Amino acid sequence: MPTLKNFVAVDWRAGKDKIYFFFKDHNTYSRFDIGDNRVPDGYPADVSFGDWHDFHIHAKNVRFGFTTTHFQEEDMLNYDQDFLWLFYYDDSRTPMVCKYYQDDDKVIGISRVADTIWKPLLDYFDDITAGTWWHSPAPRKLSFRFLMKDGNSLFLNWNLPHGPRSIDDWDHEILLQPITDETWPGLAPYKDRIITAAQNDRTLADSYYYIFLTNNEYITYNIQKNKVEYGPYQINETTWPGLLFEADESGWEIDND
Q1: Is 171 or 251 the better-scoring residue by pLDDT?
Q2: What is the pTM of this model?
Q3: What pLDDT, on a 0 to 100 scale, did the predictor assign at position 112?
Q4: How do the residues of the chain divide into helix, strand and coil, expressed in percent and rounded to 5?
Q5: Does 2 fall in a domain?
Q6: What CATH code is carried by the domain that includes residue 116?
Q7: Nearest-5° angle of CA 209, CA 33, CA 249?
Q8: Exposure check for the chain: N or C terminus, fewer CB within 10 A?
């Protein structure tokens, strides 16, 4: 059975919810359709300009990514804009971020992290393995959480001002804390095995954060309840149909074992 190792998962919210998986060793990707609970035919596929546009040459270096909805708007009248933020190092080891507009399936821009709203992440960039937009009960607060390879986690909160929503007017607070039963209930025993993670933003139920571990296992974390919902479970053809694959001389094939 193949082993999932050097890969990054990101969520996609435009249209039917999906999770994309970038397999960096082979510069390929797969799409998992959450509603259908499977990887459709044709994956894994090569990362190409036709699928990922100007980001395709950077995909092999992606470190983490996540989706926001109506966070930094291109159109103030559109309250359902979904942006995928893809973070990576360029060839000079400069932290970069690609802002990808899911609704139009195009790259909005590629920038140095230092020149964007994500500048607070710079001091921690090399240790971040996954990040996600987090549920916040406060009406004027946007919260993000990041899992790190050193057993810590990062909490980034944006406080929205009253009046016009200019990002230049937002205040932020950032907090570095170890992963413990107080900060991430149930996750601490697995903190040194985390590879990547992606959110399932469920509309009529609590949102789940799928945290992928070494040894082909995953944990489902309940965001609203802030605790492990279940796991670790094995990744296989029952839990994640079509995600495991293997290569032969003819190329990539879906592994049906």
Answers
A1: 171
A2: 0.91
A3: 97
A4: 10, 45, 40
A5: no
A6: 2.110.10.10
A7: 105
A8: C
